[in-house]
Design goal:
The chain is mainly alpha-helical. Helices cover 79% and strands 3% of the residues.
Length: 271
Amino acid sequence: MFRTRVITAAILLPLFVGGVFFLPAGWWAAVLLPFLLAGAREWAALAGFKPYGQWLFCLLVLMTGVPVFLGAHYFDLAAIEQSAYWAAVMFWLLCAPLWLLSGWQVRQPLLLVLTGWLLIVPTWLALVRLQADPWLLLAVLGVVWIADSAAYFAGRTWGRHKLAPSISPGKTWEGVAGAALAVAVYHALVWHFGFGGVMSGIGIGAALLVACLLPLSILGDLFESWIKRQAGVKDSGTLLPGHGGVLDRIDALTSTLPLAALAVPWLIQRA
């Protein structure tokens, strides 16, 4: 399993990074779109929708997400896109924590549709929008990737105290501490050798953003784990060998990228 996981990552990561740097925004959005729809179908399946309901949800995501992107990109309707980000951020800051703390098992189809939309569409829009500065996008993604990897290895090595045993028994507070330390080191190195020289005036703001992204990435991971536990499955899908489904790979991105899409342009303006 670990070998398959590494091989899949070794194939996809160079393609992803190449797309970030070399594809125009429209093509980048188009390349990401099939993964958006795969994630939408996985969410609909986890929500318990029948096959026709899953495809209807994919159609809804396509017919709403693409016009938002096109409208903001070509007709200066950025307020609509910003509203999507704000709605997603409010969900992650207010609704998702209460959802997990209460152990809420949602059955209402309309609420599940709305939640799935907030997880998937703003994430796709943020990936497209932040590609305008590839290095900044990779720096943001690096926070999530470093946190996830460090939490995994620290948890396996030193993990004793469970973080949320009823949701994800494998996650520990030691893993969280390892993630926090690794992200702090990562941010210090990236800032010192990269962005600090040209964005020195926003050092505190950048550090605060990273400090917010870390717990949000853990929250996104836990939320998807809870939804999968409720659905009685281990992975959201089988599209990515060794990794599971698309949602299994972007769970932490769904909770972090909308905030990054709001905060990064704001910080750049002040730099």
